[in-house]
Amino acid sequence: MGQVQSRLTISPTPTKLAWMMHLRMLTTMHGLCEVRQCSKRWKNLCPQTKNLQKCQMSSAGSSEMLQVTVDDKSGIATMTMCRPPVNSLNLEFLTQINIALEKLENSKDCSGLIITSKIPKIFCAGLDIMEMYQPNVDRLQEFWRTLQEMYIRLYGSQLITAAAINGASPAGGCLMAMSCDYRVMAPGYKIGLNETQLGIVAPFWFQDLIINTMGFRQSEMALQLGTLFTSEEALNLGMVDKIVPQEQVMETAIQEIHKWKKIPGFARQITKSALRKPSIDKLHSKREEDIANFRDFITKDSIQKTLGMYIESLKKKAK
Ligand SMILES: CCCCCCCCCCCC/C=C/CC(=O)SCCNC(=O)CCNC(=O)[C@H](O)C(C)(C)COP(=O)(O)OP(=O)(O)OC[C@H]1O[C@@H](n2cnc3c(N)ncnc32)[C@H](O)[C@@H]1OP(=O)(O)O
């Protein structure tokens, strides 16, 4: 897929027209996915399915990186990541996730969302390191803006959100999971913000998120040491909420959403918004500064050298 030169602006509160124009631009520019007004038309797209409305977010031209299904009986959506080999988040993948989040948020039929992975033993390996290594600066900035967008959408979602963590979940994968309301994890995997181990720095909003999740003291140790926790350690720290055998992860997430659905939605949403709004507002107010910091940091020679060495070490390990 070619380099993206122009700026993609996904406004947090786009007008319907602006959003549609933006989606059309994305489709044209990237051959990303056949953009459809999903919420109303899922049924029409998949008339053969009764209870399961399926929206394939990618067209024949690109791989099916993200599968989104909504169970019309329960209103629970499942977003399944499938970007081999490790579900790393590049610009196109993040854009697809944002489009799906926008559609689900606006769908009257959807009340809950589960994020999970189709790749065995991997939930999400975090940011695609290749986006940060020897980057095109315009694309690099757009990449970061799109990651910010994902966090704003997911952490601020009105839906009941759960991460069904069925594999490794370092760095950006951990960010994604912690942005949900609930985390259920299979045993035997690692999760955490390991940025310092790569020689990079988790930005303030990653830091705020982990502090909001498990408190200051444990977060400052975890962030400085770049600790990847086992599922069991993560449970003890409050980074995840439950551990169940691999084959029960999805069912447990579904049951948990059903439990949350019994709470009056309006009261729950206002409470969630009040708790999370300060962190989201902080990012909104520093968004451009944060992008500039990221760009200046990543394009430093010393950081490029470190990233190059890290990529080599991953490749050697994979052999
Ligand atoms: C005022 C100034 C302040 C300054 C502020 C500055 C702000 C700067 C901000 C900068 C922050 C940037 C934030 C980054 C967050 C991130 O998410 S960084 C990414 C971190 N991710 C990782 O470290 C994960 C690395 N991967 C792994 O640990 C393992 O791959 C795995 C545990 C996920 C899976 O292991 P396994 O199943 O054994 O697979 P592998 O053989 O290791 O890998 C297979 C294959 O995938 C490639 N790969 C792995 N991870 C990534 C990745 N994240 N991106 C791209 N590619 C990845 C790996 O190289 C292998 O490829 P090949 O088969 O060799 O081609």
Automatic annotation (TrEMBL):
It catalyses: (3Z)-dodecenoyl-CoA = (2E)-dodecenoyl-CoA; (3Z)-decenoyl-CoA = (2E)-decenoyl-CoA; (2E)-tetradecenoyl-CoA = (3Z)-tetradecenoyl-CoA; (3Z)-octenoyl-CoA = (2E)-octenoyl-CoA. The keyword Lipid metabolism applies. Keywords: Acetylation, Fatty acid metabolism, Isomerase, Lipid metabolism, Mitochondrion, Transit peptide. The keyword Transit peptide applies. It is found in: Mitochondrion matrix. InterPro entries: ClpP/crotonase-like_dom_sf, Enoyl-CoA_hydra/iso. Pathway: Lipid metabolism; fatty acid beta-oxidation. CDD domains: crotonase-like. Key enzyme of fatty acid beta-oxidation. Able to isomerize both 3-cis (3Z) and 3-trans (3E) double bonds into the 2-trans (2E) form in a range of enoyl-CoA species, with a preference for (3Z)-enoyl-CoAs over (3E)-enoyl-CoAs. The catalytic efficiency of this enzyme is not affected by the fatty acyl chain length. Homotrimer. This is Enoyl-CoA delta isomerase 1, mitochondrial. It comes from Pinctada imbricata (Atlantic pearl-oyster).
